[in-house]
Specification:
Blueprint: E1 12-14, H1 16-22, E2 25-30, H2 40-53, E3 58-62, H3 66-78, E4 81-87, H4 93-101, E5 105-109, H5 113-124, E6 129-131, H6 137-143, H7 145-154, E7 160-164, H8 169-182, E8 187-193, H9 212-222, E9 227-229, H10 231-245, H11 255-260, E10 270-275, H12 284-287
Parallel strand pairs: 2-10, 3-4, 3-6, 4-5, 7-8, 7-10, 8-9
Antiparallel strand pairs: 1-2
Helix pairs in contact: 2-3, 2-6, 3-4, 6-8, 7-8
């Protein structure tokens, strides 16, 4: 039985005002429309479905927020336990509200995401448990579906894809998805925060990307590069998405737009920006 909450099939929205500003044909893959408000649901559906098939009774993840909310919801849907390990102060409170609402257990550890991940690994080694971070290949397989959708919705491969760069799992998944769909890659331009450890974009507050080697390989094959932006540029892009296009996302999700201001695309190119999570994931950002 597939464990699903109706994930996927998210809109591909044209962004004419921002496209004109940056001189490109700009489209937004609006992943905030997924059930828990982020792209994580695609992979979590596949990972939890296969976990249940194998008799797993507890899933574990380390998270700065979005994986936590998704893991908790899909565990509840499957009727199994979820344990969420988060770095103290490293996740938006609204995302942890999602975790608590569906009955998952939160474990806070001092330090960075890396410390949380190591603790999650330890917990997942216990009998009946499974780690569902993006190092789980089922997660990557599920997230590949977004790339296939883009090709179907656009009718062709875009020239450029920009997206936030935290752990790198999503960049890896898009690369695999495009190659599965059409056998080649658009130019991939993952966008990271200048200060990874304490950026305002909490969803990409990951100092050491777990998928760095896979990202580097995908960039080499696609002709892309990592684009670095500061918090002021992320917040400006975040405001522009809301004010100019009506898309309210969390700050990290605007990183792909911020990358356009740093030369991620050339004049006239067709660009798809992956907007990864809903603004209600971090509503306090509006006041900040």
């Amino acid at each position: 039985m597939k464990i699903t909450l109706g994930e996927g099939k998210t809109p591909l929205l044209r962004a004419p005002r921002l496209g004109k500003r940056y001189g490109v044909d700009l489209w937004l893959k609006w992943e905030g429309a997924n059930p828990t408000g982020s792209f994580k649901d695609r992979g979590m559906s596949v990972a939890v479905t296969r976990a249940v098939e194998r008799g797993i009774t507890r899933i574990v993840c380390a998270s700065t927020g979005n994986t936590a909310a998704s893991c908790a919801a899909y565990a509840a849907r499957a009727g199994i336990e979820a344990v969420i390990v988060v770095p103290q102060g490293g996740a938006a409170g609204s995302k942890l509200v999602q975790v608590r609402a569906v009955g998952a257990r939160i474990v806070e550890v001092p330090g960075t995401f890396s410390a949380a991940y190591e603790h999650a690994l330890e917990l997942s080694s216990e009998p009946g448990s499974l780690l569902v971070n993006s190092t789980n290949p089922d997660r990557i397989e599920g997230q590949m579906s977004a790339a296939v959708e883009i090709v179907e919705q656009l009718g062709r491969l875009p020239d450029v894809v920009t997206l936030p760069y935290g752990g790198g799992g999503n960049t890896r998944a898009y690369a695999r998805g495009f190659e599965a769909a059409v056998g080649r890659l658009p130019r991939l331009q993952p966008v990271q925060a200048l200060s990874r450890g304490d950026t305002v974009a909490s969803a990409i507050r990951i100092v050491d990307p777990l998928h760095r080697s896979f990202v580097e390989d995908a960039l080499s094959r696609s002709g892309g590069s990592v684009v670095t932006v500061d918090d002021a540029q992320i917040l400006e892009a975040w405001r522009s998405l809301a004010h100019d296009e009506g898309v309210f996302c969390e700050p990290a999700s605007a990183a792909g737009i911020a990358g356009l201001g740093r030369g991620a695309a050339r004049d006239g190119e067709t660009v798809v920006c992956i907007v990864t999570g809903h603004g209600l994931k971090d509503p306090d950002a509006v006041d900040r």
